[in-house]
Write a structure and sequence with these properties.
The structure holds two protein chains of two kinds.
Chain A lengths: L3 E4 L2 E4 L5 E7 L12 E6 L6 E5 L3 E2 L7 E6 L2 E6 L8 E7 L6 E2 L3 E5 L1
Parallel strand pairs in A: 2-11
Antiparallel strand pairs in A: 1-3, 3-8, 4-5, 4-9, 5-6, 7-8, 9-10, 9-11
Chain B lengths: L2 E5 L2 E3 L5 E8 L8 E6 L5 E7 L6 E3 L7 E6 L4 E6 L8 E7 L5 E2 L3 E5 L2
Parallel strand pairs in B: 2-11
Antiparallel strand pairs in B: 1-3, 3-8, 4-5, 4-9, 5-6, 7-8, 9-10, 9-11
Classes of the chains: A mainly beta, B mainly beta.
Chain lengths: 112, 115
């Protein structure tokens, strides 16, 4: 299975400051169709996961533009430009290029 | 509104069985792959199984192969997960999700395997 490694695992941030989460895969996530199926999810406390970003850099409907994704091949990043209180939670990267889909360990974002 | 609602979770003894259901609404269910994902208490997310649009292709993670069965009823817009020979390590919140890249998730149903 493809191993997804996130860093950091804990991210204390100041309101209004930027935050960045890294995700690395054990092999390239480029699929035979040319797409890279790397997604980012947010899980707020007590809630189910919500997809924020698909195929590396595409925001899902309703996701604030302060969230952005980038990267290629095996290295990916989720950035929050200005952290708000509602952004507290655990963030997961997930690859859907290979079966089974696999998730990173999660990065817990909290307010300092 | 696109919605997935899971049900069927509960407390079961090791070796027992449970059937989870997921009711889909707000989209054309029969045109999407569907996926079950689980989350053990305080842990991360694990893909469990998925099924193609007409149910002819089914895939399972190794840890549940031979014990769990994923099915769907497109006439009823319903997804199911039959879980047999349950183990303590199957204790988790089980989510159904749309597509292999899980663009929409349900609220989850909790399965506890304990004597």
């Amino acid at each position: 299975d493809v191993v997804m490694t996130q860093s950091p695992l804990s991210l204390p941030v100041t309101l209004g400051q930027a935050a960045s989460i890294s995700c690395r895969s054990s092999q390239s996530l480029v699929y035979s169709d040319g797409n890279t199926y790397l997604n980012w999810f947010q899980q707020r406390p007590g809630q189910s996961p919500r997809r924020l970003i698909y195929k590396v850099s595409n925001r899902d409907s309703g996701v604030p533009d302060r969230f952005s994704g980038s990267g290629s091949g095996t290295d990916f990043t989720l950035k929050i430009s200005r952290v708000e209180a509602e952004d507290v939670g655990v963030y997961y990267c997930m690859q859907a290029t290979y079966w089974p889909g696999t998730f990173g360990q999660g990065t817990k974002v909290e307010i300092k | 509104e696109v919605q997935l609602v899971e049900s069927g979770g509960g407390l079961v003894q090791p070796g027992g069985s449970l059937r989870l259901s997921c009711a889909a609404s707000g989209f054309t269910f029969s045109t999407y792959w569907m996926t079950w994902v689980r989350q053990a208490p305080g842990k991360g997310l694990e893909w469990v199984a998925n099924i193609n649009q007409d149910g002819s292709e089914k895939y399972y993670v190794d840890s549940v192969k031979g014990r769990f069965t994923i099915n769907r009823d497109n006439a009823k817009n319903s997804l199911s997960l039959q879980m047999n020979s349950l183990r303590a390590e199957d204790t988790a919140v089980y989510y159904c999700a749309r597509r292999n890249d899980t663009d929409v998730w349900g609220q989850g149903t909790t399965v506890t395997v304990s004597s």
